Amino acid sequence: MKVTEHIxxxxxxxxxxxxxxxxxxxxxxxxxxxxxDELMEFKPPFIxxxxxxxxxxxxxxxNGLHELKVIKKRPGTVGICAAIQGKYRVDAVPHILCGGFSxxxxxxxxxxxxxxxxDNVVALRGDSVxxxxxxxxxxxxxxxxxxxxxxxxxxxxxxxxxxxxxNSHPTHFCIGVSGYPEKHMEAPSLESDLHFLKKKIxxxxxxxxxxxxxxxxxxxxxxxKARAEGITVPIIPGLKPLSTLKQLNMIPHRFHVDLPEALIxxxxxxKDNKAVRQVGVEWCIQQSKELMxxxxxxxxxYSMGKSDNIKQxxxxxx
Length: 318
What we know:
Order of helices and strands: HEHEEEHEHEHEHEHEHHHEH
Number of strands: 10
Low-confidence stretches: none
Radius of gyration: 20 Å
CATH architecture: Alpha-Beta Barrel
Number of helices: 11
CATH class: Alpha Beta
Structural class: alpha/beta
Mean pLDDT: 92
Distance between the termini: 22 Å
Number of domains: 1
Strand content: 15-25%
Helix content: 40-55%
């Protein structure tokens, strides 16, 4: 079922959803299933599965030369989506990136998803890899998420890259895209960021999932500005509970997200990460309850492969 169909079926009730990371290469999927198992009592209509592109590393060959190697630390997005749908009978929503894909790669990825009867995708540009200062698209790939959305929307019309195909089968993907209540790190302003979000919607996106935020007012302001720009699709808040003292500096630096002063003060008082984790849970519970009163379609939690704190939050909210 499409994400938009889940929203219609719920008739205004806020639903619980979450996002997972594929296991590191070499790990068994059962560890992931154990985390998912703990959250299934909250009846998520879908589960997002992230995609992780390749990384470039230089291996010392021992003779003064270095060899460039491409590695992928978290493969398996498509396989995990198939496993989730088979095991739990809920929709899996794979992420698909511009980075690391040619247009042909993208089409083949989408064909595989269609064969597996996966109805939803989240289309993202993706971040730069460690060897890049700025994001660089693949040769013959997309530079912007709006271009990726266009390709998916075209496939939904039965338009493949090979225009000589006869009786081509149209796909039926529901397309999600990202939104940034505090603007994307590369955007010069929130207004310019909303301009590009509008391009993604015009290209065919059906809903928006936001980057994490810790101040609900920033989300409410973002939604109001998006609506003023004519963006009418559902906007889903993305939430992540703070869990370690290190994140106090890492999250603002890596994701360009502000932390409220009240949250910072509570975290600084903590003696260890166990205490930080509890502060993060309590803060996210209050965020969730306030957002629920505004009738958001879903509360979407970034679990990062850990479920205990998400479960604690869900027990208080749902």
